[in-house]
């Protein structure tokens, strides 16, 4: 793909590069509760320690809140998205996290959130949800088929924990990313927060790191045996004059990354585009100098999100220039 | 456009006829002459479709005559000598004007069977899927099992607008049965699982030997089985799911609201004891 060497929007340079993303398996869970507060408590707990598949087993985040009219049982709810590298690992993470974080949370119920009729992501398989958790009922549990869905009713101390037996999973996309290069910490945080806020308004995506932002961007491999990933020295401002791989100029004082997982590549692309739009809205005047992305040369991941293409959809209303 | 085949009874044969060959999908692939040559067993007798029915085919616009896509078979002037209507039906729509005999929808696995009249005994017996509606009354053993078989209905929805006979949903394992009127003795007896709703009064010995499943009663029964106990509270979420799943069914079930929680009784304690009777009144 031929791209101009540099693209500037509102004074911020958009690198002629691309984010490289990978196939993942994902699902959406709908958590409901007596009040939104308790549904959110369960969702926060379930999506905790789920920033990276490298050390957490899955990547997860809260997608959005649901009004009572939108949920299967007419109570307020929250949707969460979970991503893992395989169906087996995803199923394991779902069962563990729902068992420890939703089953335990007062008044909650949990349902699969992938609608096979409307899902644009290719369907994968069904992961166990209630079919394993039901054994907590110690023989008192009851199953009930309503329509095409089997539910489990597990007696607990506040009544019944109700959950669907399985959750549909889909073939999804993980690892879309934006790297924001700013003049200082304040500028980097402001740009990252604006970008994440814009992305969170879109469906089908989550940004799994704390606040949606990661400072410890990584490269593949390490000088140490046994470490599969290590710090991305090319973007560390303290190594500007030391690392031969450094991609930073002297004026860059802080770099932050946003990782995006989505149900489809279109969802990831839309989120990246929205993030770029929000960040360049602040522009160079606010200290955002460049936007770049991480890739592995294009040889590992089948999904390539070219920043210039994405920025084209996000640059309306700003002064742009090609060089 | 959808294909509509109409079989109008013109000459009743004078004996009971096995109508299980009259299914929408197979007949849709036949010409009128081929349909007329179909042989219908009738015990030691038999007859051709053409001997009994006037056969016609038409293309109906999906929006007007036929509310469904795909093949629709209409049987007009049906009478109780027609047994096994819709038996082992897999798909399509079978509309019956008039009453049917025994075994309507026997082992039906899919599609829609709508009977504008009464149905005999063993309606939806061992039904596995699809939707069967009887606008009148049904005889005994609806949604039950054949004698000696272990499982009654295992899927689908049976709706009886009128009364149901004895042994309603005997040994039923899965699916939904709704009765707009009263039910005979031993309703939901030996229920393995599934949901049975009775808008009127159940007869004697209802829920006898009920292992699991849900019996919905729209009226407070005259007595409760002695082997059922107070079923406690805390089933609000399940009730909400159940009520929502009944929203498109017949009244009074479709009119129930999540806010008014029914009284729950658990049993039958003589067997597994994980069944429940929900009294909504």
Largest interface, chains and sizes: A-B, 20 and 21 residues
Cα distance spanning the termini of chain B: 45 Å
Report the C-alpha radius of gyration of chain A, rounded: 21 Å
How many distinct helices of chain B?
4
The count of helical stretches of chain A stands at: 7
Mean pLDDT of chain B: 94
Low-confidence segments of chain B? none
* Helical amount of chain A: 10-25%
Query: Structural class of chain B, please?
Result: mainly beta
Strand content of chain B: 25-35%
SSE order of chain A, one letter for each helix or strand: EEEHHEEHEEHEEEEHEEEEHEEHE
Give a brief outline of the structure.
The complex is a heterodimer of chains A (323) and B (281). Chain A is α+β, with helices and mostly antiparallel strands.
Description of the molecule:
The complex is a heterodimer of chains A (323) and B (281). Chain A is of the alpha+beta class and 323 residues long. Helices cover 23% and strands 35% of the residues of chain A. Chain A has a 16-stranded mixed sheet that branches. Chain A has a two-stranded antiparallel ribbon with strand order 13-14. With 281 residues, chain B is mainly beta. Chain B contains four helices and 17 strands. A 13-stranded mixed sheet of chain B has the order 5-1-6-8-9-10-11-12-13-14-17-16-15. In chain B, a hairpin with a 2-residue loop joins strand 3 (39-42) and strand 4. Chain A binds chain B through residues 32, 72-75, 109, 140, 142-147, 151, 153, 155, 158-160, 162, and chain B through 174-175, 193-195, 212, 214, 233-238, 240-242, 244-245, 258, 274, 276.
